[in-house]
Amino acid sequence: MKRFVAAAVVIVLLALVSLFIGVGNVSWNSLFSPSPDERALQVLVISRIPRLLAVILVGMSLGVAGLLMQMLARNRFVEPATAGTAESASLGMLTATVLAPQLPVLGKMLVASGFALAGTALFLLILKRIPLRSVLVVPLVGLVLAGVIDSVTTFFAYRFDLLQSVNAWTTGDFSTVLRGRYELLWVTLGLTCCAYVAADRFTVAGMGESFTTNLGMRYSRIVALGLVIVSMVTAMVVVTVGMIPFLGLIVPNVVSLFMGDNARRSIPWVAVCGAGFVLVCDVIGRVVRFPYEIPGATIAGVMGSVLFLYLLLRRDARVG
Fold first, then answer.
1. pLDDT averages per 10-residue partition of the chain, 320 residues
2. What angle do CA 192, 188, 270 make, to 5 degrees?
3. Among 23, 106, 191, 311, which is 20 to 30 Å from 229 by CA?
4. CATH number at residue 302
5. How many helical (H) and strand (E) elements, i.e. helices and strands, does the chain have?
6. Which residue range(s) make up the domain with 315?
7. Is pTM beyond 0.85 here?
């Protein structure tokens, strides 16, 4: 408990630092002086606070979605970005944009969720049909499937002159987050809470279909619930800010090193560590080339790839 409180305090400190980083002059003195700067207050309320909330919500929800994916696929190297889920959501967004351009954001999100659900279900179906002789086969299958879906998306995006939009959906960038354009992400918090409520069922499902059935639980229903949560979270993140690579892969693996495979114990830690990971990436992206900004997804890709190689080599060393 003390470690969790310490981690939460670190997140709060990072959040405070994030509020005062940027081109706009927002400082403690400008906000709390006897005559506060009205422009600084507007920047804080309209841009900085919504951006901070979006960063935290994305980090929490994607981290938990990655944990659920790993339990459903029973593989530590799977996440929405390596199972075709994010690419399927992008294809759904493209489909909605081309066929129903006047559809509201919520409607496009529902279409993207449906495509993400279908793509993830297809991934799990493929896993049932092929022999899995190595833990690395599963993410390789996911990457191949994601590549095929991404190729289809890119082809039609090129035909309809929407490549720039597709790039925005696949590259997480918080610089465009403003008040009124991120509120959909609050739904991901509710989905994260649903995952925590059903955490014990996901833990059992992670032990296999036979084990789950022997305990009197319906494995198919648990998998369906997990798929719905993962697909909706992924779709909302893609629609709002774009995808963050490696988040759902790295954070659950790091947490499992000291918390084990119990979902009820792990989900709060995954949520906190996910928020911290995205916050660190966002802050680094804003200060490395100040006053210019590097997208948070780019920083996450660099840091995540290094951590992924470490986890991969560590797992191979332990297996050997």
1. 82 86 71 68 84 92 91 84 87 90 86 90 85 74 89 90 83 81 88 90 84 83 89 89 87 86 87 92 87 86 85 57
2. 40
3. 311
4. 1.10.3470.10
5. 15, 0
6. 2-319
7. yes
